[in-house]
Amino acid sequence: MRKEPLLEITGLRLDFRQDDRIVEAVRGVDLKVFEGEILGLVGESGSGKSVTALSITGLLPKTASVRSGKIIFDGMDLLASPEEDLRKVRGSRISYVFQDPASSLNPVFTIGDQLIETVVLHQKAAGRGRAFDIAVESLKDVGMPSPKELMSAYPHQLSGGMRQRVMIAMAISCSPKLLIADEPTTALDVTVQAQILELLSKLKEELSLTVILITHDLSIVSQVAEKTAVMQQGSIVEYGDTEMVYRKPSHPYTKKLIDCIPKIGGR
Amino acid sequence: MRKFNRLTVFGFVVVAVMACAALFAPFITKHDPGAIDLQNGLMPPSAGHIMGTDSLGRDLFSRMVFGARISLSVGFVAVGISVVAGVIFGSVAGYYGGWIDSIISRFIDIMLCFPAFFLILATIAVLGPSIWNIMIIIGLTSWMGVARLIRAEILSLKEREFVEAARAIGASDFRIITRHLIPNGIGPVLVSATLGVAGAILTESGLSFLGLGVQPPVPSWGNILTEAKSTLGIAWWITVFPGLAILITVLGYNLLGEGLREHFNPHRKQ
Predict the structure, then answer these.
(1) Structural domain contains residue B50
(2) Which residues of A touch B172 (CB under 8 A)?
(3) Which domain holds residue B199?
(4) Which distant-in-sequence residues (6+ apart) come within 8 Å of B196 by Cβ?
(5) Can you give the pTM of this predicted structure?
(6) What is the total count of domains within chain B?
(7) What chain B residue is nearest to A170 in terms of C-alpha separation?
(8) B234: alpha, beta or left, given left = phi > 0 and alpha = psi -120 to 50?
(9) Which of B249, B91, B170, B94 is nearest to A84 (CA)?
(10) What ipTM was reported for this prediction?
(11) Interchain contact, B165 vs A107, CB within 8 Å
(12) Residue range B225-249, pLDDT digits in tens
């Protein structure tokens, strides 16, 4: 019944070069993401989860390079594609939401300008009028009240949670197939975190999105993700249905991570 | 909106008055700046000629006002050229870094080694003095400061997350530089451009005074001063008015520029 995965990463290895030192950041990652699911990618800082995500569309910093591996997205070999093609994929078919919504928006432009830019970049034929409608529509999708007024607001006028919603609106405005959310809730307080997670699951259902949710917090993954992959020191040490991973962790590192989740009343 | 201090307002008023005078020159002068009236030469200021006349009987006020056109437009065009060149070189160097940055930065260092005024003199000696040559040459010898400013701004801005976010939505390098980086880093450049206008006006006056700038009979503040040299002892007004005009205008631009710098300085005490 399950068809081809939407995204398949095989044997991905990449390293960082600094002066003469070479640091292996990702050591042979295999990962499959199927259409319409939320995959939680969990690991501590420096475990390679973010660079793995960035490498998917070639957004790695200059000091990092992919040594070997294959990334197939929807039949397209991304690592073998030229920059020009990758740029068309970014934002339109694979989009990102980053950790810090405070600095992810350009401070000198209005929310509307930035949303419209995204739409116009990928749908040149759309024109500004149509792009405006699409932008308003995506703001509505992420549950923003009075989206029309919001279009002329500047980023500093919004709260952290609202900014992150705007970032998500921007990410979904070109109806991508895959949304990569890199620690989307880390910079937000707990109540807003819950709202954002709820929003991600809602969007997944409504827009048939596939989501990779990157986080260091296993409790977040357990709330929304169907599948969980645990990364440690550049490799995936555990992968499976979230239920199974959570209940019967096979790797000692996963057990430790689960022990990290605070429980009311102790054990 | 934070308030500007008094000196800045004074600078702004001076700049605005000079700009209006230049813009509406034909409407605020009674006499043709080129009309020669030898019988009324070297007349001191009076009701008919409020700044007096020069040795050829031309109305000094008209010449001053039309001279303002020349001096200010040289200032603006020269600074325009230097800002455009500086922003292009500086943003490319700052964004791409590596060997591109090294080459551009060394080129800036080399350009800064030349004493600008002598470079200008030498170039004009070869190309010949004309108002266009002066604008271009002043512009091309003063872009280095702007380039350094914008390079430094972009070096820090490009590490911000919104640049990565822009790349993640599929923006090209060109788009990131022009849409996201330059608008965020242009503030200090505008301040230095304001100060640059003052410098360009001074340079133009200096060149015209030496006879290498704007050529007579076209009036500019610098060449009015040159003509005044020979009659300095008997007609003070021909020297004093253009001198004052240069002084006040340069002062005005400097005060405005300093005020803007202060205004945009985030560390300013309230």
Answers:
(1) no
(2) 87
(3) 6-15+58-264
(4) B78, B79, B82, B83, B142, B145, B146
(5) 0.80
(6) 1
(7) B169
(8) alpha
(9) B170
(10) 0.79
(11) no
(12) 888 888 888 888 888 998 999 999 9
